Amino acid sequence: MPSESKLDFRELIPDVRQAICAKHEADPQLYDEVDVERVRTDDWSSLRYIKWNRGEVDKCIAQLDACLQWRRQFGVNVRTEADLPHEFIKAGAIFPYGHDSEGRQLIYMRIKVYKKVPQLVEYLRQFLVGVINRVDQESSATGYALVFDLTGVGFSNADMDFLQFLINVLKSYFPYGL
């Protein structure tokens, strides 16, 4: 594999686009049209996966394909934050607010507000993905920063499953955004 400094990753975008479009044509119900159109028209939608996989096109295509299928299954484009319980917004546990010194948008997570309630875990995950998705699309290649406010946190706020979900979502489905 060529070194990162010698390879212009942008040259690989057409290959990735072509592969994803072929997969979509072969089995369109696996993908959301909004996401496929974004891959067709927005270079960053492919470039972020190319960079994450250091120019290894096969790995990039596999990750992007898995991401697009996950987005369809998870309903990322069919649900908005308004579709979820209004209490999530009112609680202020997760919200975009302001920009850092580099101009990147910030997503705040106030951990003391979080309490693990098994019946609400899936809704909170959907809400989290909705916030990240909106900020990610607004930020594009500029990226965003995540701020954990740990003021007043105790054992009742600890949820390793939710933290693992957050890490997996950022790494697998929104690479190079954070």
Kindly describe this structure.
The chain is built from seven helices and three strands, in the order αααααββαβα. By secondary structure, it is mainly alpha-helical. Strands 1-2-3 form a three-stranded mixed beta sheet. A hairpin with a 5-residue loop joins strand 1 (94-99) and strand 2. Helix 3 (43-52) packs across helix 4. The radius of gyration is 17 Å and the shape is globular. The chain starts with 12 loop residues before the first helix and ends in a 5-residue tail after the last helix.
Summarize, please.
It contains seven helices and three strands. It is mainly alpha-helical. This is CRAL-TRIO domain-containing protein.
What topology emerges from the helices and strands here?
Blueprint: H1 13-26, H2 33-41, H3 43-52, H4 57-74, H5 86-91, E1 94-99, E2 105-110, H6 121-139, E3 144-149, H7 160-173
Parallel strand pairs: 2-3
Antiparallel strand pairs: 1-2
The protein's oligomeric status is single chain
**N to C succession of SSEs:** HHHHHEEHEH
Q: Could you report the average pLDDT, rounded to the nearest whole number? A: 90
- The total count of helices amounts to 7
CATH topology of the largest domain: Phosphatidylinositol Transfer Protein Sec14p
Low-confidence sequence ranges: none
Strands, total number? 3
- The CATH architecture classification of the largest domain is 3-Layer(aba) Sandwich
Q: In order across it, which strands form the biggest sheet?
A: 1-2-3
Rounded to the nearest angstrom, the distance between the terminal CA atoms is 26 Å
The proportion of residues forming helix, as a percent range, comes to 40-55%
Gyration radius from CA atoms, angstroms = 17 Å
Taken together, the total number of domains comes to 2
Beta-strand proportion: 5-15%
Helix/sheet category: mainly alpha
InterPro entries: CRAL-TRIO_dom, CRAL-TRIO_dom_sf, CRAL/TRIO_N_dom_sf, ER-organelle_contact
Pfam family, one: CRAL_TRIO
Protein name: CRAL-TRIO domain-containing protein
GO cellular component, one term: endoplasmic reticulum-endosome membrane contact site
